[in-house]
What does this fold into?
Amino acid sequence: MKRIIQGREVDESQVDDWVAEAEAGYDTDQLRARWGRAPRGASAAQVIPVRLTSDELDAVMARAEREGLNRSEAIRAALDAWAHVA
It folds into this structure.
């Protein structure tokens, strides 16, 4: 049976190496530290769904492109600017 991972064939010796590694055990604290995105603050950030019209999203994306930001960074920058005005 062919084993393909990320488009590459994995041979039996590689599978045996992975099995031996797993049987030896993993440092779960080290694995947990690698999971997911790095935190933005002292604790996990909250995901807040927001509905935008296509015009609003187009404007956000145009500004993000001009400033070299991704969508999330652009929205966070806008919220930060708005929150500091008040």
User: Anything to note?
Assistant: The CA atoms of residues 19 and 25 lie 10 Å apart.
